[in-house]
Amino acid sequence: MTGSIKLGKVFGIPITIHYTWFIVFALVTLSLATHYFPSRYPLWGNWVYWFMGVLTSLLFFLSVLVHELAHSLVSRIQGIPVERITLFLFGGVASIVKEAATPLGEFLMALAGPLSSLAIAFGFGALWLLGRFILKIQALAALSSYLGLINLSLAVFNLIPGFPLDGGRLLRSFVWGITGDYRRATHIAIGIGRAIAMLFIIGGLGWAISGHWLDGIWLAFIGWFLENAASQSYRQLITREALRGVKVGELMSRECPIVPPSLSLEELVYNYILPQSKRCFFVHDGEKMLGMITLHNLKRIPRERWAVTTVDNILTPLFNIIWVSAEEDALKVLEMMDEKDVNQMPVMERGHIVGIIRRDHLLHFIRTRLELGI
Ligand SMILES: [Zn+2]
Q1: Ligand 1 centroid to 26 CA: how many Å?
Q2: What does the pLDDT average to over 257-282?
């Protein structure tokens, strides 16, 4: 997500905050300090409302973080890396690099979040009993009853059985486990997810029209977010299906001309790139391959230096090249490109780099397949 700031790492997982989170944080604090606490505890001082508002909001978002950490840790135990956890407008999201390998793995990963929210709810419940009846500290009881209920609703909301909510993942793991068909299970979970999202939107708008405009619009907004996430999952599924069983060798381009290391960038651009519309070049010194050059390397050098810079000054050396085998699955390479944030990877065949696979090769293939309906 763009517009995020890094907060630090927990268990080695980077935690980031998206700017939209600050809006919700301010709104939650505002509603607690000016409405929720004053209406229930009219005898507190003004600064107490604000102190309690900020503290409660912070603890609320800490609860959301724990929920996401629970997903992340169970995922990591299964050997699936977690890129980061982001707190944003609608709560938190853990960027988990790939899907679980088994239905049970997915079941545990999905269940961990709501279970942790439930555990936190019970913890605050106990704290509420302590504050209310034993210590008789009103502020402690107020804070824990709010946080207990909010964590309980967090657990319940996330158990709604529509993808991409945790409940949708649980549903998918069930269907996947019973039928053994990951694809069908995903289609079902996403379908229900979209239906639930539409219900949220329609219900929210109806609620807004009937006078509860703020709650109504918020509900519709959550529905819109869920619909977006479900559609995105659907596109990912389609991509997977289109690339299933396809090898890199079938889609790569073998047309990377060989150029000498002494070639100037100006010659490269005007003699190779523009007239031949090539985008990648292997740099060979006689028989020996030194590395490769793509438009990406070239763009880093200012134009006025093209005439005086030679290819060997800017090439990516052979030992730095992250290559893939021509036998590799195309889908796996697309995932690697996402993971490493690159748009192309050289392809190795029998110990030699023979071509390049680019993101647009893969996307073009997917589009064509969808267009033809095959
Ligand atoms: Zn969750």
Answers
A1: 23
A2: 86
Residue with tokens 């996402």: 338
From the CA of 115, how far away is ligand 1's center (Å)? 9
- 2 — pLDDT class (breaks 50, 70, 90): low
Q: Is the pLDDT reported for residue 27 higher than 60? A: yes
Nearest CA among 350, 342, 353 for reference residue 257: 353
Per-residue pLDDT at 247 exceeds 60: yes
Residue 222's nearest CA partner among 5, 24, 1, 8 is 24
- Percent of the chain that is helix, strand, coil (3-state, to 5): 65, 15, 20
Strand partners, 268: none
User: What pairing do the DSSP bridges indicate for beta strands 324-325 and 316-317?
Assistant: unpaired
Q: How far is the CA of 120 from the centre of ligand 1 (A)?
A: 14
- What pLDDT is recorded for position 289? 81
Mean pLDDT of 284-302: 84
Centroid of ligand 1 to alpha carbon of 177 (angstroms):
20
CB 128 within 8 A of CB 145: yes
Quick check: 220 pLDDT over 60? yes
Range 248-372: architecture per CATH? Roll (3.10)
- Average pLDDT on 61-89 reads 88
Q: Where are the domains of the chain?
A: 4-159, 175-243, 248-372
Q: What was the pLDDT predicted at 253?
A: 81
Distance 206 CA to ligand 1 centre (A): 27
Find the length of the chain.
374
- Ligand 1 centroid–CA 7 distance in Å is 20
Do 183 and 241 touch, CB atoms closer than 8 A?
Answer: yes
How far, CA to CA in Å, does 370 sit from each of 26, 241, 334, 366?
A: 45, 10, 17, 6
